[in-house]
Amino acid sequence: MKFDLNLFMKEFKNPSAIMRTAPLWVWNDRMTDSQIDKSLHELKNHGFGGAVIHPRPGMCVSHIFQKNGSHSGVMPWKVQKNWI
Length: 84
Fold this sequence. Notes:
- This protein has helices at residues 5-13, 33-45; strands at 24-27, 50-55, 75-78.
- The protein is α/β, with parallel strands linked by helices.
- The chain has one domain (25-84).
- A three-stranded parallel sheet has the order 1-2-3, covered by helices on one side.
């Protein structure tokens, strides 16, 4: 595959969600769908590509990863283990 400088510059000026930063988002309490959607929308408005979601042990969060894979053009990522 040949390097395309024009494509690189286009992506550099306006990176896709997967290439943008994603802060660690620790959930200590139950989150409603509307809270999640509002927060992800705010992250997008501030230039983030998503969030790395770290729910506390015992919290059920699998439902948010079943909604088309992304919310409002940002990507939710889930920490798989409790490493903190």
